[in-house]
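The passage that follows is intended for readers who have already worked through the single-chain material. We present the inputs for a multi-component assembly, then the predicted structure in tokenized form, and finally a short commentary. You are encouraged to pause after the input and sketch how you expect the pieces to fit together before reading on.
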Amino acid sequence: MLAVLERWLHPILIVIAIIAVVYALVNFGTVKRILIGRPMRTRELHAQHNKLLWFIALPILSADLYSSVAYGPEAGMTELAHLGAPAKWLILPITAATVMLLVLLIASYIMGVMAYPNGGGAYAIAKDNFRRPWAALTAASALLVDYVLTVAVSVSAGIQAVSSAYPAIAPYETTLSILCILVILLVNLRGVAESATVFAWPTILFMISMAVLIFAGFVDEVRHGFTRPATPPLGTWPQGLTTLLILKAFSSACSALTGIETISNAVPVFREPHQKNAIKAYIALGAITGATLLGFAFHLYIRGISVDPNNTMLSQLAGLYFGHGAVYQVIIWSTFIVLILAANSTFTGFPQLAALVAGDGFLPRALTVRGDRLGYSNGMIVLAALASLLIEVFHAETNALIPLYAIGVFLSFTVAQIGLVRRWWKVREGFWRVKLAVNAAGAAITASVAMVFAVTKFTDGAWIVLVVLPLLIGVSLAVHRHYLEIGDELRIDPTTMRPQTHAVVSIVLVSGVHRVVLHTLSFAQSIHSNVIALYIGFDDPSIEQMKARWEAWGSPCKLYTVKSEYRSLLRPLALFIQALEQIEGRADHIHVIIPQFIPRKWWHNILHNQSALLIRLWLLRNKDVVITTVPYHLHK
Amino acid sequence: MLAVLERWLHPILIVIAIIAVVYALVNFGTVKRILIGRPMRTRELHAQHNKLLWFIALPILSADLYSSVAYGPEAGMTELAHLGAPAKWLILPITAATVMLLVLLIASYIMGVMAYPNGGGAYAIAKDNFRRPWAALTAASALLVDYVLTVAVSVSAGIQAVSSAYPAIAPYETTLSILCILVILLVNLRGVAESATVFAWPTILFMISMAVLIFAGFVDEVRHGFTRPATPPLGTWPQGLTTLLILKAFSSACSALTGIETISNAVPVFREPHQKNAIKAYIALGAITGATLLGFAFHLYIRGISVDPNNTMLSQLAGLYFGHGAVYQVIIWSTFIVLILAANSTFTGFPQLAALVAGDGFLPRALTVRGDRLGYSNGMIVLAALASLLIEVFHAETNALIPLYAIGVFLSFTVAQIGLVRRWWKVREGFWRVKLAVNAAGAAITASVAMVFAVTKFTDGAWIVLVVLPLLIGVSLAVHRHYLEIGDELRIDPTTMRPQTHAVVSIVLVSGVHRVVLHTLSFAQSIHSNVIALYIGFDDPSIEQMKARWEAWGSPCKLYTVKSEYRSLLRPLALFIQALEQIEGRADHIHVIIPQFIPRKWWHNILHNQSALLIRLWLLRNKDVVITTVPYHLHK
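Having made your guess, compare it with the prediction:
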């Protein structure tokens, strides 16, 4: 019996899902109301933000960057795992290099905050400082791709943290990750105030957890000494280590730096003076993140933690210090929550950027439409779909996703910094030479890092990004061209071009003499006098019968009949219209009137011919005729 | 690099499949022409059949029954497999019982042929002899379910035969089976002459193969004696054997009897005298099938063949006699082809029966529509979809599908035989007492067999059929009631009810002043004078701007504006229509005219608002208004 259940569970779930989707499509309003909540008025959008103190804004805006601590160092060490214990000490120099890059990036971003107090993302900076659109599009595409990866990586890493504590869920990581994304999507479709103070607490909790962990590590080391039997020897050159491998490990570790741009996009959220407070937050965040990375990496080295795909390094270290009790649970769950928050924050960033780019005409305009709850719902849905696809393809393995990650960020960093360099060169005020130098150095280093990523990770997955990016840029340019062309085509001169009346022939399609035809003919004759009826029969007897019935009905209008030898309605109709266009040369518009049953229950449609729908779709695409549907609502 | 390929292969295939489906939907005509071929005229349907000699018709019509030899005995033994070698001798009595049932069934079917010379399936017999529709519907539903199972079982068994010879394909059995079904579907959508003589050859080849196999077995036994070390002892009662288990094994073995009804449905195909020739064919087919079953089972026993899920018993036996050379290959491939032919013949039976039932108003009428190539294409597609679903759910394991099988056949046998009993009782001519006795005995035995199936296989899957059957009958009755009610509702008295003109208000939805609006207004004013324009704006500035532009355009008609605070078009439009219905009480029809962009390339639609479509769908379902779409075909 259980085997039967198991066999049928999956298909039954699929069937339920299909029914749910169909129901949702048909009763869209109700389902949406339940899931998404009541629609909101446009003017509710401009309700005043509460401006935040910098040390409150800091945790709110730092989930994205700080949460990367949970997977960055581990991603670096995964690259070196096959070299065994002798390579473990490399975590120290690699982390140190990562932290140096962090400092440089924060310095460059502080320059950005100075230049664009209203929050200038890489796209805005590039748009402002490059004449041609491709620079801004490069930055935007790179960021959009990386937003998708942020969701995929953060959610996978979060689920992996939990499955380290509860190995029983390990086989379901993919499903659980996609479920998480759906929940985040729903929450965001309902609308979340991005800067709600509640979001500060999980990040603060995670920061405290990490501080406790690092402190516990030092206590442990003071009590048991700074070397252990497990501590790998320092400075030995493991066999098989190559420069390429070091660069790969470094670039993976740099995934810990993603999310650094969040504060610069949110400068207006800070209390006055915006810029000063944002800079303070940047410095504090840099210090905290740097210290965490260094301390965490140091303890990982001392205890000689190895990479274990079923148990994250963070979980291993916490287990060593605290066992698997309450403290361990707090660390695991705060890691999970902060990673989910990082994914969540992306559900604000991606749709906003997409709407910005779409507003400039480079992406489909549907991305600029605000949903019922005022969020850019289409962008959110696209983000959730793409991230779910990535998770499905990569089976929610964080370390398989990392190689795709970070290229985009560093590429957009580079574009933004070059933009700032151009700006300082143009502006030449204040300490412009210093700023220019910082950004030039930043540009050089981020460009090299992006290059290193692209080369070293090419075969591991980076090629995907390098294929997708130019594609995305090309599509954006094509979209823009299309919109410009359409705009030209639709423009009219209102003083000279006015509506004019033309001769119209209205063809009513009739299938017999019954109530629906009666209803349709009544309408047709009410609006227009030049009405003819067309009957398409499949054989001679049915045509003769129709003619007789029409006459018995007193011939309400002229009836044409056509025999369809192929039992298709479209071909004879098309030929009839063509003939009409030629014979009745004076008809500028041909107008086809189609009666349509509307059954009382939507699923009754399966019992009725859908030819009205098919004819309409086909005519609309293939003929320049006006189509009217006259519904007849069945009562039974 | 290979790992990357493997990771992406599946998703890339899915993407290609999606693109193919979208392309096919959009360019349906072309794709259909390539796959299905040119449409055929209705009159081509009645081209004369070539009437067949009985010994030519025999192999053509016997693929379904005879091919079951390939899985019937094996299905029986699978039930006893866990009892080990001591149970192997039971194949002899079980096969003997199966053959006795075969003889009885053939006798009853000969009675059926006598009564219904034009080919009477169980549905026709039941319809003719029961006043209430449920008896005929029981027969029809049972047969439809079993047709689906025939396809699933035959195709799975065919693929299993091939994978016995080529174990490398074993992991792909499900995919290959579904692929086979798709190919059969395509071939049938193109249209195959059911009684084409070419179909005789594979069955003849398979019959000869089986004859050679059985002959080789006897030669082998004459040379090496009728007992071997492997021959299981005869008549020992294996531990764990129960009556229930014997009944289960017997009912599984009876799956070898499915397809017996084919000849009785095809009596008119035979040369004159139809009935006599059909009866000859029935007797010959019974003799051949019975002999094959007995001989095959006997050799299986002598060589002590065990059930092996990776190697069919037929393949094992052929391997023992002939090695894996040419003869073995001929046996395997002729088995495969004849099983595929059995599935193929179902693609004629299922759609014809479904069309018959639908023609009586018990199933959706779409099933009676002939496709381009004159076959009932909708029925074929439904059959292929259901069979593929079953194969997917049961991972193409023949032995997992067998418990669902055969109940339906025996149930419909029972209904048909009771029907014939009623008929003989009514008619009372000729040897009616003998005929009545044969059919009464047949009814009793097939009823008991069906009951045994239902009880013994209940937990193995038979419950599915026992749930589906009443559901199907209930749905059929509901469908019938729906059609009757609709017919009543639509009927009018042509002498008194004539079209009448009413007052109509036409609302043109405008989104600005541009070429599409110009085009739409021109049409609206051409057909009708009572035209008003409606603009739905999301904020006050846009509404003011629209008013100004309308005035600058010389106000072609009265413009109403509505502000949508929720950025939705549907709600304000619905409210406006409601207000109009109340204010302009004299308007019997409200007529909404919607301008619609038609881009040059279908995929450009993604760049444009689909609100025209949404509005139309929503209005059609929820409001009693007439909807006109005025297409504007973009040139760019």
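Commentary: The first helix of chain B runs from residue 2 to 26. Chain B has a mean pLDDT of 84. How closely did your sketch match?
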